[in-house]
């Protein structure tokens, strides 16, 4: 597909399984392209019938999709999108068909490391810590995301009266949870809470803490029990999500080491990013490489119990990836 000179808006189709962390990678990349070139974005969410979900991608066919899935191929009389951006294992059997099915009209972008038929996508936007290589691979620090200055300002508006009044430095704490590589048991969470409280009290600051959907309930309870005496806000999952507001108002950001997405988003703010340790369940070489990359970029350091201040150029990797996509589409 080649971008013309008439500034006709691009049609972009974003495809994922609908999970926020997955969808935001593809959608963030689409929105970055939209900021550079007039575009129309359509979001599609898919999932496979339970009986077929665990099949290898090579054995999956569109008829195996759950009826609740959005239609990802155009209906009769409709046209294929100019650009297809997909994220996650669920999308691979669909993405692999697009170039052939569209007759080459659609430029196909897959984020993350597909680890299957890497040659059928026009471009793979992969985290550098995944170690993917090839002529159609663009390596970036972290993953694409939706965090921008405008979105942070928009998200902060509803919380401005509460958060602006907090004593500085304001410390955002982003807590993940159990995954294949890490765990956050109650005792470890309690220890982290004590260290965080000591660090915030030492600088006379305030706390802005949010848990993820993966945070174990016991870990939430342990941390919440130790942190309320600090000035600030602990989000309990009810009401509007203050995540963007926390990033906007933070002078420091503490992020558990289990989330590549949160680390990359934090590093886009310019605030010092402190990596909180968790309990490893298996070797986590990819995360170690990501954190090393962030250290090299000047963005992140391991949390050592103190809130040292440093500066760096905020990471703009999603915008860089968007420029590369438009450049490749222009060259045809």
Walkthrough of the structure:
The protein is of the alpha/beta class. The protein has helices spanning 20-36, 92-101, 149-156, 160-164, 186-202, 217-226, 243-249, 260-267, 285-296, 317-331; strands at residues 10-16, 39-45, 83-87, 107-111, 123-127, 137-140, 170-175, 182-183, 206-211, 232-235, 252-256, 273-276, 279-280, 300-302. The strands form three sheets. A six-stranded parallel sheet has the order 2-1-3-4-5-6, with helices on both faces. It has a six-stranded parallel sheet with strand order 10-9-7-11-12-14, with helices on both faces. A two-stranded antiparallel ribbon has the order 8-13. Helix 8 links the parallel strand 11 and strand 12 (273-276). The model has no long low-confidence stretch (mean pLDDT 95).
Quick recap:
This protein is α/β, with parallel strands linked by helices and 332 residues long. Helices cover 33% and strands 20% of the residues. The longest helix has 17 residues, at 20-36.
